[in-house]
Specification:
The protein has one domain. The protein contains 5 helices and 7 strands. Helix 1 runs antiparallel to helix 2. The chain starts with a strand and ends in a 5-residue tail after the last helix.
Length: 145
């Protein structure tokens, strides 16, 4: 059974996040967390083990019950249709009906357990909306700089 990782050296946080090359790594949001001097989160935190679920949040601030989930495969790729038109197709797990159902189950369970889950995408990270939402959620749940 994997355990969540605790980031013990905030100054290395951006390097750690940037160094990983997997879908759940959050390089842009990691840099923004450091720039805004927000609290350091836990990664891959299992939040529903008591219910027998192995769901994880990408980032979690357990003390405040705030989590961040980065949704991938939201824009997809361009494909050429039989009619000669270009279409954008998203084929990640989050873009399927079953994947959306599973995400809804996870996020609804988190809400019932008192978590605020901020969901972001590459676009909302780039334009700053994700970090603004995260900071507001943390402040609402009691965090003060």
């Amino acid at each position: 059974m994997r355990k969540h990782k605790s980031i013990r050296q905030p100054e290395l946080f951006a390097e750690q996040v940037t160094a990983r090359r997997r879908p759940s790594s959050l390089p842009e949001i990691g840099k923004q967390l450091l720039e805004r001097q927000l609290p350091v989160p836990l990664e891959e935190y299992e939040f529903a083990k008591a219910l027998g679920r192995l769901w994880r949040f990408d980032y979690a601030w357990v003390e405040y019950r705030v989590a961040y989930e980065r949704e991938g495969a939201t824009w997809g790729k361009h494909v050429l249709g039989a009619d000669g038109q270009q279409y954008r197709v998203a084929n990640g797990r989050h873009a399927t009906g079953a994947g959306m159902d599973k995400d809804a189950e996870k996020y609804n369970c988190a809400a019932r357990l008192g978590w605020v889950v901020i969901r972001g995408t590459a676009s909302t990270e780039r334009n700053g909306q994700a970090i603004r939402d995260l900071e507001l959620a943390l402040r609402t749940k009691g965090w003060r700089p």
